[in-house]
Amino acid sequence: MKPFARPPRPAAAAIAFVALLIADPLPAWAQPVQPLTLLEAVSLALSNSPDVRPATDQVSLSRIQQQLAESTFGLKVAPSFGSGNNPYGFNQQSVGLAVSKRLPLGTQISLMADSSRWNASDGGPWASRDGGYAFNVVQPLLRGSGPSATIDLVNARRGVQRSDRQLRESRQQIVVNVAEQYFSAARLMRLAATSDLALVRARRLHAASEARASVGLATQLDVLRAELLAARAQADLELQREALSSAMDLLKLSLGRSPDSLLEILEPDVAGDPFGVGRYASQPVDDLVMLAVATRPDVAEARARIDDARRNQTVARWNLLPELNVNMSYARRGLGSSQPGLLNDLLGGWRFGVSSSYSLDRSAQTASAATAGVEMLAAEHNVVETERRLAADVRRAHRAWTRAAESIAIQQKAVDLADQQLRLAQLRYERGIASNFDVIDAEHHVSQAHASLVAAEVDRQLAGLTLLRTLGTLSPEEIAR
């Protein structure tokens, strides 16, 4: 008979349990969800939010356009090869190479080299050969030179700059939107917790009213009022939970997640300063306006459009001039031919020339120049209006931020007063001095005061974030670290 095995020691059992957890981890639905902080949610939205994709795609498209414009001034190499019968009944083979380069001054430089040979159609020996090269330079003196030669490249670079600024504004707006949704969810969490406590107090009051009515210390009307208070508290709690679920769904979409995914957030410290707005508390409003004018991307873009309009106006005036080109070329022919001198005398050597053209109908060019002048004036007026509108936005955001701080202090006093009134009403009710009507009324004031305090604290944070957005100092890059 075998002896009984000794039971495992506690330490050995714990080691075996840990080894089992490592070997067979919990499924995804059973694993705990790590709550997201406000800064983590903003950083996640900057990476995954669908709202940033259009601006990012526009940056990519503008860079492609810039590469296309830069390729105009790149070195272009075009080899060629041909073999077959020409119209005169000869077999022909040719090979060539063309290299061209366009300079920012509008100069067009090209170098071409080719070699050809022919024979009879019956496939006999090659009867003739010819090879050579040519060098050509075309320099426009009026139209086609100056700023008009590089206008496409400059516009492409401006397109990249414009799309980068739009991306920056889009990322800043995403920070504001996600913070609003995060604070909204946090506010609803606090309101749900407050409604839960109110429901507990209402049920306690209902039980006390029934007990007092059973011994003749309260009326049935007191019981009905307490029951109605409990029903309202239950309904308010359900509404808060439903609103919280909707707010969490919106936050999930902004974070690039599906609505059925799991997400938990940490209640933010609404009394803190996570974005560093307090550094502007002691600065005068006029200094904040000057800071916004210097840092806002839309102001910089409005000023850049003045340069765009001025450049387009200059190009439009250049296009009113006639074309005047200076041509210089050199060719060498007859290489490999039996009569190189004859071919080179006919086709080779230096060539110089001047070509010009002028259209008598300049309606399109004149209209373009007039349009550029109007756009120039419109861009200047737009800068003035943008700076004025920005100054008003900064002052309004600063007032809202200051007023939100004052509102928090007022609402905190209202909460303290409502709590005191509730304790006094409960004490009077317990001693039989008053009915539960005073308790119910005090409960209503407590709920209103707490809701107003939460709203004031959230408004303070959002007003500070809006102030940073208005000043142009909101840096998504620092938040995403």
Helices and strands in order:
Blueprint: H1 10-23, H2 38-48, H3 53-71, E1 76-85, E2 90-102, E3 108-120, E4 126-140, H4 151-214, H5 220-254, H6 285-295, H7 297-319, E5 323-332, H8 340-347, E6 349-357, H9 363-430, H10 436-471, H11 476-479
Antiparallel strand pairs: 1-2, 2-3, 3-4, 4-5, 5-6
Describe the structure.
With 481 residues, the chain is an alpha+beta fold. It has one domain (38-85, 144-322, 364-479): Outer membrane efflux proteins (OEP). Helix content is 61%, strand content 15%. The protein is built from eleven helices and six strands. It has helices spanning 10-23, 38-48, 53-71, 151-214, 220-254, 285-295, 297-319, 340-347, 363-430, 436-471, 476-479; strands at residues 76-85, 90-102, 108-120, 126-140, 323-332, 349-357. A six-stranded antiparallel beta sheet has the order 1-2-3-4-5-6, covered by helices on one side. A hairpin with a 5-residue loop joins strand 3 (108-120) and strand 4. Helix 7 runs antiparallel to helix 9. The longest helix has 68 residues, at 363-430. The radius of gyration is 40 Å and the shape is elongated. Residues 1-31 have low confidence and may be disordered.
**CATH superfamily membership, which one?**
Outer membrane efflux proteins (OEP)
Instruction: For the record, give the distance between the C-alpha atoms at the N and C termini, rounded to a whole number.
Output: 69 Å
Order of helices and strands: HHHEEEEHHHHEHEHHH
Low-confidence runs of at least 5 consecutive residues = 1-31
* Annotated CATH architecture: Up-down Bundle
